[in-house]
Amino acid sequence: MNPLLAALPLIIAIVLIVVARQSALTAGLALLASALALGWFSATGFDFASSGQALWLAVAITAPIAYILLGGVFLYWVLRAGGALDAIARMTAAAAPNPGLRILLLVYGLGVFFESATGFGVGIIVTAPL
Question: Does the model's pTM come out above 0.70?
Answer without folding.
Answer: no
